């Protein structure tokens, strides 16, 4: 099979298996963390604001669409639906890995077309840390410019690279490559996991390198060790996928670790965020923004109306949590910081 066909097959497999129930860990934040109820909120419902004023992105919703792969059969259609709904609702949209655009001119067209149709949508570029090894920073920055993105996301996925048949688990020296990329890229850079989260020790190592944000993308939702295990034909990879099916720092653990540190970057929350209450818990634990991947994709695969309906539900739930904690906005909820582990 040619490299291009292999790429397309991998992306189609990822979409298929990532949408299966068995790849979702289903560890809800609201089963683990509680917020304090305010019986006497000194607020009216209409005063509550679910949007934030972000120093880089301007006025945006607290929730955003987490990076999801393009390059599969229906991706132009589905990504157009995501872009339309994000534009309408002022939500950031993380595009999926742009790896293929590094070598395939035709692949560059998809997001250009979408951006022409939805000029107001704010996009976040995406590339895997492995690509920093083989490509100059100028090539990586081209990806950002090509889709007029607001910032670059670099994703980390050590477990996935090990379990994936064609994975590249070569992470030696990657922190230096990330630093170099931040120094040489004239746009904000965000670092994210893909469902296994960050420990306190790893977060400490990321201080002082100039990141805009770390998106914890913790254990709790889509699990790429599981997805790659379902795809693999090799027994040792399949069995390792089962053994590591519960591997990762949960989103709650990652947010707690971050809250105990004096960090010089924003913390974003994702990984198993499924409701507006999960969003509120994330914000109370210190997250500036909160991403969802799988639920947005499931709805976008159905229709634009289904996705818009889901977004409205999510915002209504988040607004309810703001009201019932007596918080007029996300900033107030973070300042209150009234969260605790469920006993
Ligand atoms: C279909 C699909 C494709 C994804 N592709 C990417 C990707 O290309 N780059 C990336 O950084 N993360 C990717 N992710 C990971 C998500 O951004 C996110 O970190 C992870 O799925 C956890 O969020 P969730 O539990 O809400 O799905 C993908 C997730 C899904 C479901």
Short key terms for the protein model shown above:
alpha/beta, binds flavin mononucleotide, 343 residues, single chain, 8-stranded parallel barrel
Could you explain the architecture of this structure?
Helix 1 (3-18) packs across helix 10 (224-231), helix 3 crosses helix 14 (294-302) and helix 3 (75-89) runs parallel beside helix 15 (304-324). Helix 3 links the parallel strand 4 (63-68) and strand 5 (93-95). This protein has 16 helices and twelve strands. The protein is α/β, with parallel strands linked by helices and 343 residues long. The termini are far apart. The strands form three sheets. An eight-stranded parallel barrel has the order 4-5-6-7-8-9-10-11, surrounded by six helices. A two-stranded antiparallel sheet has the order 1-12. The mean pLDDT is 95. It has a single domain, classed as Alpha-Beta Barrel (TIM Barrel). The longest helix has 21 residues, at 304-324. Bound molecules: flavin mononucleotide (FMN). Flavin mononucleotide binds at residues 14-15, 18, 66-69, 96-97, 126, 155, 192, 194-195, 217, 221-222, 270-273, 292-294, 297.
Summarize the structure.
Helix content is 45%, strand content 15%.
Find the CATH superfamily.
Aldolase class I
* SSE string, helices as H and strands as E: HHEEEEHEHEHHEHHEHEHHHEHEHHHE
Bound molecules: flavin mononucleotide
Strand order of the largest sheet: 4-5-6-7-8-9-10-11
Strand content: 5-15%
- CATH architecture annotation: Alpha-Beta Barrel
Fraction of residues in H or I helices: 40-55%
Structural class: alpha/beta
Rg (C-alpha, Å): 19 Å
- For the terminal residues, how far apart are their CA atoms? 53 Å
Weakly predicted, low-confidence segments: none
What is the 3D shape? globular
Question: Can you identify the CATH class?
Answer: Alpha Beta
| CATH topology type | TIM Barrel
Number of domains: 1
DSSP strand tally: 12
Number of helices: 16
